[in-house]
Prior knowledge:
- The structure is a homodimer.
- Helix content of chain A is 38%, strand content 12%.
- Chain A is built from 14 helices and 13 strands.
- Chain A has helices at 9-14, 45-61, 65-71, 74-86, 99-113, 128-141, 160-164, 189-198, 218-221, 290-294, 296-306, 308-330, 357-368, 391-406, and strands at 33-34, 93-95, 119-123, 146-150, 171-177, 202-206, 225-228, 243-246, 336-337, 349-353, 370-371, 373-375, 379-383.
- In chain A, the strands form 3 sheets. In chain A, strands 2-8-7-6-5-3-4 form a 7-stranded mixed sheet, sandwiched between helices.
- In chain A, helix 9 links the parallel strand 6 and strand 7 (225-228).
- In chain A, helix 2 packs antiparallel against helix 11 (296-306), helix 12 runs parallel beside helix 14 (391-406) and helix 13 (357-368) packs across helix 14 (391-406).
- In chain A, 58% of the residues are buried.
- The mean pLDDT of chain A is 95.
- At the A-B interface, helix 2, helix 3, helix 5, helix 6 and helix 10 of A face helix 2, helix 3, helix 5, helix 6 and helix 10 of B.
Amino acid sequence: MSIDPAHAARPLDAEDELAPFRERFVIDDPALIYLDGNSLGRLPRAAQQRARELVDEEWGRGLIGSWNDRWLRLPERLGAKIARLLGAEADEALLADSTSVNLFKLVVAALRARPDRPRVVTDDLNFPSDLYILQSALQLAGPERRLEVVRSPDGMTLPLETLAAAISPDTALVVLSHTTFRSAFVHDMAAVTDLAHRYGALVLWDVSHSVGALPLSLRETGADLAVGCTYKYLNGGPGAPAFLYVRRDLQPALQNPIAGWFGREDPFRFALDYQPEAGIRRFLTGTPPILSLALVEPGVDLLLEAGLDRVRAKSVRQTEYLIALWEELLAPLGFTLNSPRDPARRGSHVSLGHPEGLRINRALVERLRVVPDFRAPDNIRLGVCPLYTTYAEVLQAVHALRAVVADRLYAEYPREHSGVT
Amino acid sequence: MSIDPAHAARPLDAEDELAPFRERFVIDDPALIYLDGNSLGRLPRAAQQRARELVDEEWGRGLIGSWNDRWLRLPERLGAKIARLLGAEADEALLADSTSVNLFKLVVAALRARPDRPRVVTDDLNFPSDLYILQSALQLAGPERRLEVVRSPDGMTLPLETLAAAISPDTALVVLSHTTFRSAFVHDMAAVTDLAHRYGALVLWDVSHSVGALPLSLRETGADLAVGCTYKYLNGGPGAPAFLYVRRDLQPALQNPIAGWFGREDPFRFALDYQPEAGIRRFLTGTPPILSLALVEPGVDLLLEAGLDRVRAKSVRQTEYLIALWEELLAPLGFTLNSPRDPARRGSHVSLGHPEGLRINRALVERLRVVPDFRAPDNIRLGVCPLYTTYAEVLQAVHALRAVVADRLYAEYPREHSGVT
Lengths: 421, 421
């Protein structure tokens, strides 16, 4: 990709067929360059309206009646929509609880389904909360179970061969983040799933950093289980409930280890003993947080309207553009590319490394109003969200990064880290 | 209590010092008699405003920055407020996840803390989801663990002696709903806790039907653990996140069995291994649903402003009034009192039994716009919420119940049950 960086953004934006979607989001501060939709997606205008309807009408006026009329089936109704983003069938996904709780449920269920296999395989590119949950689940699953964390050779990617060496007939389950949170490296879902299945292991994908950014093919690849969050590329709102996916033929065999009334067959009979619902709903537990849950829908609708192929095409084009700009303008200042070069193996953010990354990130946010985020040890993550990120914003962000380092704007900030960004 | 039911409501409302609080709620349909705040509390006006601020300002404009500024500490900041309703210290409560998930966490943690005691004791008045969760937790805790469900002799109450007979030195944990969901029977928290502690067992209270309806004394009674929901008397909104309580001195010894990043010390270091936070925050798991979580605050604030002693005094007066009306007007039509007569042992709803309860309830809602709820086999639950329920509404509801039976308005409805109400 050859770009004259000083001039390239405008024509790219002009020919961007997704550009009109930007108007569908609340952006009342155009001077803010927001490249952190991979942490918290922007507010869809429709969600703003939906929030009023939910609070004023459904809760305030409908009261308990809204449970029957509107809320009771939300987890699977929204799950069915999200399933389309996952390449899954409508009755294979469900929206409820946090990603961590969903992961716990599915890992414990999977281990019960593979009682004689001691090992769970993951990698050190996985999101730390996933690793903590695996540690939790294994502790409950008995002393013979063991977690194997495969090490990435470069802290950024994991070659299939390295992973393959860790999978064997005693592997119960392989758990990976499909797109990894630091480098945006994308595992080859089909190849890893094939590999695991060859040994009789189950595969569980955390697709938090993939869903809504690139088309997924859970069903086509034969994936067994998945979880993911809705507050990044789905623009579902802060801490919005997460989804889980269980391939249809596995559902009857898997048992929810946190069996609450919402997963029970006919819960309003209030029977003393648990009897699971027939389908995906058995993976529900308690009463879901309706306001946060229902507000996931508008963002999902926007993605379905835009189409994931178009979203992915623009995402690749934008990250390619960003990498070309990095090469010309930022590499000379000591920035490294901490994301894969190959767009097929890269999600929708680009991590740039710099020894002063933490302070640079802070100066960017506070002095220049460019918002990426920072992930230790040295990654400045620049996320593009094709529904609202412009090429002009990407270009401005690169110029801002350049200015922060060239003018040492970061020097006034302390080295220690606190909080989220 | 002697009341001429035709005339009694007006003077009671006139002298009600909590009456002004009704204005603090959205009630734009005064013809609807809502006696189901024990299932889903009404919408506080302040919550309506807070929802706009949360969505428009904090999410829409503040974006990721709101995590640092507003959201990250919400679980314990709101937990500290709820602690005042629990009779607990500020650092002993936390708001996150559903009641069922919180219960699972605390039960598994408690069982680990009592490894040599096989039995968990509960009763059949407990909310069924709690029983399902106990079954789940015990299944994970090993084959030697056993759940003992003490049977209520009358389906309505549980004498202390009956419970005492089930508690022994091999009891690890006693788990009860403080106010039970069908009859509103209230266990004697101090006596049960003493009893359990005498045998070295831990006690876990589900206070979902108590919190916000009557003053609680978790600390004073020495209670070990508690969970509860926020969408009933706290008016936190549909499915709003639940709280958990862990007595301060127990916190270091208990381990969260679903250890996610939000409970980790310094989660934004993204270390590979879990290390729990020092205090109550270790019982967090994943990212909490911020919109649903934050909207719990206005309802809690109203209760703190009103004062639980005044709330409880009005609640008792209203349920006494309702029972007096039942005796005069409804008992002759075949309604039974399925709640305790003694107000000290009764929460803030009154259950009236009738063989046609299911159909009567439906006719009430659809024909007469009186909204209680129904709990099998035959309970019509009439909940009073002192912050907004008037004596006039209680009286009208009784007249409506009378009319439905006297005029056989229920006869057109089918006998089978579906849905929530």
